[in-house]
Fold:
Amino acid sequence: MIPLCIVDANVVGGGLLSSEAGSPTRRVLDAMLAGSLHFVVSLDLLTEYREVLLRPSIVACHGLTEAEVDEVLRLLALKATLSEPPPYEGLLDDVVTDPGDVHLGGLLAAAPEALVVTGNRRLAADLEGMCELATPAELAALVGSAPCSRRRFSPAREPR
Structure:
């Protein structure tokens, strides 16, 4: 059984950018959007997803408009378990190298059993021993070897 997951923004971004249906990040994102992966988000994590997906260099690759990115996020939010972490815990203040990842501490405090899925080696090294960790490839292997045959998002126009 696949555990509850916290999926880092780099995995969501990689999934949206991947042109390969079988790539691990794309399979994870497809599973999230299909509702076959049990994952938890907070408003802070959704905000991070949005900020990453709307970076000019990322937009240049996926070609989605702001409204289309917001639709992807809406679909993710509908499939996710929304968790509002307990009042500021400071759990990761002195642990993570990137201050942008501190908010994950609140999610870990709210869902300590969650598997953190990240392709960020630095974050994985920072969290080693604090929680269960998986790479996108490891989670994709748990989700199943067959890529999702349907498109995960169908904007009105094709991405560039």
